[in-house]
Structure formats: C-alpha cells, structure tokens
C-alpha cells in the first residue's frame, strides 16, 4: 500500500498526541500490508517537520517507492488521459498515482476525489 500525505499527516498528529486514532487503527486492520510512500509524499511531508532528523526518523519507518523513468512516463500517460477527458488533477497526486500503478500498489487516502478519475488506480479510503 502507498499512503498519501493525508494519511501520514493524520498518523503524525496521532503519534504526537499519544492517542490512538483512525490512522493507527487502519494500520492495525491492515497489519499484513507493507506500508509505503512515494518519494513525492516523502517530499511533501518535509514541510510539516521542524527538523530534518525528525522528518527522516518518521519517513524511514516506511518503504519509499522511487520516482523513476517508468513513473514519470506513467504520469505523462495519466495526465494525457485526464486532460482529454477534461479532468483536472494536482501534479503531486498524479505522481503518487503513477508510482502506485507502476508498483502494483493501492493508494490509501482521504482525498478520493483527487484520485478516483485515474484509470487503473486501486484506491482505499482511510
């Protein structure tokens, strides 16, 4: 599973509060899955941390799926398809979706509307 930033923001807040919440419960319910993030999400998360060490410590708990030529090309194909259909999408969400499709993974997000028009993408709401 590839979790987008909405999930990780919720998880980080829960961990900071020291209270279990929906993100931690989701992890418990999917304990057999390998949690991961795209390198794009890793970059998005950097803005929310006050230190590089804290950011690295948090992100290193998860598999990081690379941004590579296959992902870049998949994103271009998705973009072209969405554009032809008149469907706008955020650039980062496009790259996250392309990463998941190339890796054969499911995207876990709160923002289903950002991803639902992408053909071939498996989605799960948290």
Distance between the termini: 12 Å
| Beta-strand fraction estimate | 5-15%
**Tally of individual domains:** 1
Compute the average pLDDT. 92
Tell me the CATH topology. Rossmann fold
Query: How many beta strands in the DSSP annotation?
Result: 5
Radius of gyration: 15 Å
**Structural classification:** alpha/beta
Q: What letter string, H or E per element, gives the SSE order?
A: EHHEHHEHHEHE
The CATH top-level class label: Alpha Beta
Categorize the overall geometry: globular
Low-pLDDT residue spans: none
Sheet of most strands:
3 strands, parallel
CATH architecture: 3-Layer(aba) Sandwich
H/I helix tally: 7
Task: Describe what this molecule looks like in 3D.
The protein is an alpha/beta fold and 126 residues long. It has one domain: 5'-nuclease (Rossmann fold), CATH 3.40.50. Helix content is 56%, strand content 13%. It has seven helices and five strands. It has a three-stranded parallel beta sheet. A two-stranded parallel sheet has the order 2-3. Helix 7 links the parallel strand 4 and strand 5 (122-125). Helix 5 packs across helix 6 (91-103). The longest helix is centred in the middle third of the chain and has 16 residues, at 69-84.
Précis, in short:
By secondary structure, the protein is an alpha/beta fold. It is 56% helix and 13% strand. Helix 7 (112-115) links the parallel strand 4 and strand 5.
Map the helices and strands.
Layout: E1 2-3, H1 5-17, H2 22-29, E2 36-38, H3 39-46, H4 52-59, E3 63-65, H5 69-84, H6 91-103, E4 106-109, H7 112-115, E5 122-125
Parallel strand pairs: 1-4, 2-3, 4-5
Helix pairs in contact: 5-6
């Amino acid at each position: 599973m590839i979790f987008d930033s909405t999930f990780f923001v919720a998880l980080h807040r829960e961990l900071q509060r020291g209270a279990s919440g929906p993100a931690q419960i989701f992890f418990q319910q999917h304990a057999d899955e390998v949690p991961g993030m795209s390198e794009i999400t890793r970059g998005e998360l950097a803005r929310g941390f006050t230190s590089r060490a804290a950011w690295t410590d948090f992100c290193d708990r998860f598999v990081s799926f690379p941004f590579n030529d296959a992902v870049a090309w998949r994103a271009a194909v998705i973009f072209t398809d969405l554009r032809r259909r008149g469907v706008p999408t955020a650039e980062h969400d496009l790259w996250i979706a392309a990463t998941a499709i190339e890796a054969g993974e499911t995207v876990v997000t709160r923002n289903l509307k950002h991803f639902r028009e992408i053909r071939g993408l498996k989605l799960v709401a948290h």
